[in-house]
Amino acid sequence: MGDISSDNWRLRISNLKKVLDKIVDWYTDVLNQNISTWISLPDINVIGKECNSEQLGRLLQLVVGIAVQCDKKTEYIGVIMGLADEIQLVVMQAVQEIMTVGRDRETSISMTFPDSLNTDQIQILKDQLRKALDELSIANEARELADQRLFEMEKALNMLKEEKEALMQENDKLVQKLSDETNTERGCERADPSDASLKDRHYNKLQLRIEALQEDLYKMESHKEEYMAKNEILENDLMELRLKNEDLQRKAKEARALKDELDILRHVSERVDKYEQMIEVYKNRLEEMSDLKRQVKTLEERNSRLVKTNVKLEEELKRSSTLKSQIDMYKKQVQDLHTEVAEQNLRADKIDFDFKRLQDKCTILKQEKDKLLQENDRLKSELEETRARSDSESILQDAIVKDPKCLINEINNQQMESVEDIREKVIKLEHANQMLRDKLKDSDDEKVVLLQTNLGDAKERITELEAENRNLNRSMLELKSQLQDLTASGTNFPANNQGQELPEEMPRDLETALRRISELQLSVRKKDHEMSELESKYKKAVTKARQVVQNLEPLSLQSPTSRLSSVVNSNGGPMSAPVPNLYFGESNNSLYLSDDVNELKTNLRLKERQIFDLEKDLYSCKALKNMEEKLMTVAFHNLAANVQRRAVSQRISNSRSSSNASLSAAECSSFLNKQRKAQTRRLNLAAVSPSELYE
């Protein structure tokens, strides 16, 4: 039984046994009732282990009986009357069962036996216990009747003894009187013999009275003998009843011992069941041990392999430990660069407005310039056409007049020379175009990678700033409400007292905030300077690109007739006959140049789109910068509000210790102020929106 330590049922059983012993002692000491003889006590083992409701009900029934019969019974009865009707009925029935001794004893005794024992043995034990309890109840009833009869007989015997003593006293008195009368009669006879007849009469009367008294005495003695015989019979019956009572008590003790044995056997059977289950579990475990041994072998082999790999990994780790320091340095540098980029973005926001304004002016100037260039080109083309017509007509006429064959040879030579020059120029332009393409591709790839990395970093930074913004907004709302509470309280303090009552942490916080503000201002100035440099470089690059485009567009747009006219004008000979088209590769070259120009235009458009995206990023960075500045101002105001609140709280704590009258007034004012604060806080929170906070 000592092996079972899974539950604390033993402690419960010991405590319940103590409670039951105290209940039995109270019944025996206070009420002079041995409840163990006329009621079956609750089974503590069943209550402690299984929490049986029937046995627990018996124990509670005994407790209710004590509550109803103790000194404080009025209080407990009042508590019972305050319960529900159903509960009152149940409690009253339990009290009546205890108060009416000897009623329903068979129903009050109910034993529970474990299922593991034999049913025949259980039935035999139950029958024996019922018979013993029936005999015990009959013997108790007979004993009570015999006690009553014995008490009555003792009463009657005492009465008879008193009557006998009274009669004996009267007899003694009468004998004394008789002796006195005889003495007087003798004296009278001596003195006066004439009164003999009177004395004889008196003597006869006395003698008759004595005889009557003797008869009564005989009757009393006969009654006494009868009562003595009855008393002996009753004493014999009492002895028999006592012997029967002792036998019944012995049987009750045997029944209790059998009950204890049944409890022990039940407990043993439970343990046997548990041990059988444990044996089955251990058998299953033994069967599983073989599989586990195999698994252990495989795991050992695997462990050896892992040890080898672990050794290799440790060697690699030693090798990689040298790289960790470099990686940490790179990480720190990357973080520093991220912070620098954020600062530069914040500085770049200031340039955004000026850049937009200049960009608008630039667009207006571009439009005017384009209009002027178009008009200039149109006028130039008209002038060149008119000049070419006049010159060509004069030259051709002179050449035809002088020597048409020389003119044709010269024209062919000039055409060949011009074709070779054009081919050389085209080859140079192709080479330059290829170089520009390679450079643009490399720069585009690098810029794309940089933009992707910058975009990822910017997104992370934006998420961090949004989280910080939310936290700061929450703190700002709290501090606003606190400030409003403080302002609503109407407590005005002089500046000197506030300065004296400021905590020591306030100067430190102010110094750190001012340092942070100065650092941010320096970083913003640096960013502004860098953005101005970048803007100048950007403008130079744009102007160069426009010049390149303007230089390439006339080559692509120039027609072969204009080139021929320029060649003829350079020779200066007249010609009236039509000139044949001898430029075989001119159309292909012009198409090739136009393709290059289109590619450059597309590249410029892509660059402009990238610039537009960068401008968008600048706008977002500017918004973040404004947000950070606003948050810094809000944090500074919150810090000032915290300091003011601490000063106010210190002032209030000092003022509270003044006097009781001032305390009552302060409490009244504080209650009113709290009501006002609640109203103002609701109004302010309803009025403030998230958009206003961000703005």
UniProtKB/TrEMBL annotation:
User: Which residues are in coiled coils?
Assistant: 122-389, 419-489, 517-551
Occurrences of domain HOOK N-terminal (ranges): 5-97
Gene3D superfamilies in the record, alphabetically?
Answer: Calponin-like domain, Helix hairpin bin
Q: Which GO terms describe its molecular function?
A: dynein light intermediate chain binding; microtubule binding
Ranges for domain Hook C-terminal come to 148-490, 500-558, 594-682
Please state the protein's primary subcellular location: cytoplasm
Q: Which key words tag this protein in UniProt?
A: Coiled coil, Cytoplasm, Cytoskeleton, Microtubule
Q: Which GO terms describe its cellular component?
A: centrosome; cytoplasm; microtubule
Q: What subcellular locations does the record give?
A: Cytoplasm, Cytoskeleton
Check the record and name the Pfam families matching this protein: HOOK, HOOK_N
Superkingdom is Eukaryota
Q: What biological-process GO terms show up in the record? A: cytoplasmic microtubule organization; cytoskeleton-dependent intracellular transport
- Matching PANTHER family, A to Z? HOOK PROTEINS, PROTEIN HOOK
**What's the family?**
Belongs to the hook family.
Know the name of this protein? HOOK N-terminal domain-containing protein
Question: What organism does the UniProt record list as the source?
Answer: Tetranychus urticae (Two-spotted spider mite)
